[in-house]
Amino acid sequence: MSLRTTARHAARRLLPAAVRGPLARIEQRLNAVRFTIPDRGRLDYRVEFDYPSLRKARAVILWHDDWELATKATLDAIDRLALVCDGDLVVDYGCGIGRVTQGLRQRHPARVLAVDRSTTMRAHARGYVSSSDVAAGAVEILSDLELFERGAELQGSVDCILLIEVLQHIPEPVLDDLLPRLRALLAPRGRLFLLGNDSLDVDRDGNSGSPVEPVLARHLQILRRDRWSDGFAHVRHSFVCA
Ligand SMILES: C[S@@+](CC[C@H](N)C(=O)[O-])C[C@H]1O[C@@H](n2cnc3c(N)ncnc32)[C@H](O)[C@@H]1O
Fold this sequence. Notes:
Blueprint: H1 3-14, H2 17-35, H3 54-61, H4 67-80, E1 89-93, H5 99-107, E2 111-115, H6 119-128, H7 131-136, E3 139-142, H8 144-149, H9 151-154, E4 158-164, H10 172-185, E5 186-196, H11 213-219, E6 222-228, E7 236-241
Parallel strand pairs: 1-2, 1-4, 2-3, 4-5
Antiparallel strand pairs: 5-7, 6-7
Bound molecules: S-adenosylmethionine (SAM).
S-adenosylmethionine is lined by residues 49, 61, 94-96, 99-100, 115-118, 121, 144, 164-166, 169-170, 174, 178.
């Protein structure tokens, strides 16, 4: 467990709730400032993901959580919901440095397309994901463009699409284009699994805090919603969609 996680656990035990709440909000604001894109339009991304430093790339992926605990909790949620079976074709969309792809491969012999729009994150992923998995083709690291260029080949064939800590950051107008394209890749019994915040950084009016659920429901059928707290610093929300 990291020093920050230990300190957070101690604070949770020792500080009264009246102090913990404001402290958590200050930490949230500091992180938001740390990773904010300085010059942006109203409908642009709010968060910068292109950090050549692996330390910063990891920090922007999980602002508050302990890496090992949160990764285990995420993989446990995927398993509890029986989302991935051995031999499945999985898209880890917005894979970052490959945290979930790598963990998933350690649990399941599934084939994973690890997709990220950031060249820098994909470069980190090439160092993080098992090189033998990449060499064997069990994991392919792709840009979003490369994924959709293979749209005809992949259409209707993907068993599970994971969006872990990703969707909340994508501006709503981009989601309205992206979600139907992802849905088209799903096999007839395929599932799209979203885990993260339940509100958007950027809605169609350029505001933050709009709920994720109506955007999802516009494009997919929501089969179940869950809340997860064990292993996470803050409650995470998930949706299983078809
Ligand atoms: C917070 S990180 C999460 C990374 C990873 N899913 C994890 O949980 O470890 C969000 C990632 O989504 C990627 N991303 C954001 N918008 C994207 C988009 N439209 N298409 C593909 N990737 C995107 C970012 O580059 C970043 O690597």
